[in-house]
Amino acid sequence: MEIGESRLYLCTDARTRQADFAQFVDAAFAGGVDVIQLRDASLEAADELEALVVLAETAERHGKLWAVNNRADIAATSHAPVLHLGQRDLSRAAARSVIHPTTAIGLSTHSRAQVDAALADDLLDYYCVGPVWATPTKPGRDAVGLELVEYAASREVIPERDRPWFAIGGIDLSTVSHVVDSGARRIVVVRAITEASDPADAAQRLCAALPTPERAVATNSSPSCVSE
Does the annotation flag 130 for ligand binding? Predict the structure, then answer.
């Protein structure tokens, strides 16, 4: 699977409190999640790498993608297929010099100017727009609203060929229709799945709410937000 084929992207911590990381990511992938990013600032590097081994093995079994948050050194060591960066993280050029040539790089954007810059950056493979709504997973970050989602959608010329982008921030089953109506075809979620009693079912419901590209083809055996 390529990042451009994906529709449902999940960020999760290592679920230390629940002690069910392996089971959780397996259920999320089985339900249709296409990408899982491990985002847990509390982890030491060795613990993060250990969790990423579990994530990588599970993703490979399902034919899906997995991502490292922020750290190019961790992405390089773990041979991650995806590295996600924030506006204040390592530069894309510096990250690209460290990671594997095939690793996709993503970037968070929070304004029209940042969206435009992301579209002009040849080192990027995808970008995220948000947070659409305020979310406790990003305390202190102002919500950008649906206007920025609409702007990102307006910048697409050929939707299935342009740089892929995801709406992120406060998206769940009660709000996903609003971002879809505003032009988003891909979403990033956190609590909508991490706090669900049935992660696989939550993923399935979110997938069902997303538009499906006409030409995308799934190569994995698990359910996916990519059309079969």
Answer: no
More confident residue, 220 or 51: 51
| Residue 136 marked as a ligand binder | yes
Helices (H), the chain: 21-31, 45-62, 72-78, 92-98, 112-120, 146-154, 176-181, 191-194, 199-208
Tell me the domains of the chain and their CATH numbers: 3-208 (3.20.20.70)
Is position 64 annotated in a ligand binding site?
no
Strand (E) or helix (H) holding 11? strand 8-12
In whole angstroms, what is the distance from residue 198 CA to residue 30 CA? 11
CB 96 within 8 A of CB 118: no
Tokens of residue 42, six digits: 């509390």
Instruction: Tell me the average pLDDT of the chain.
Output: 92
Per-residue pLDDT at 218: 41
Q: Is the peptide bond before 101 cis (omega within 30 degrees of 0)?
A: no
State pLDDT tens for residues 84-143.
999 999 999 999 999 999 999 999 999 999 999 999 999 999 999 999 998 887 777 789
69: left (phi over 0), alpha (psi -120 to 50) or beta: beta
Query: Which residue type does 32 have?
Result: G
Whether 86 has a binding-site annotation, put simply, is no
Helix (H, G, I), strand (E, B) or coil at 85: strand
Region of poorest pLDDT, from 106-110, 116-120, 147-151, 215-219: 215-219
The structure tokens listed for 110 are 């929070």
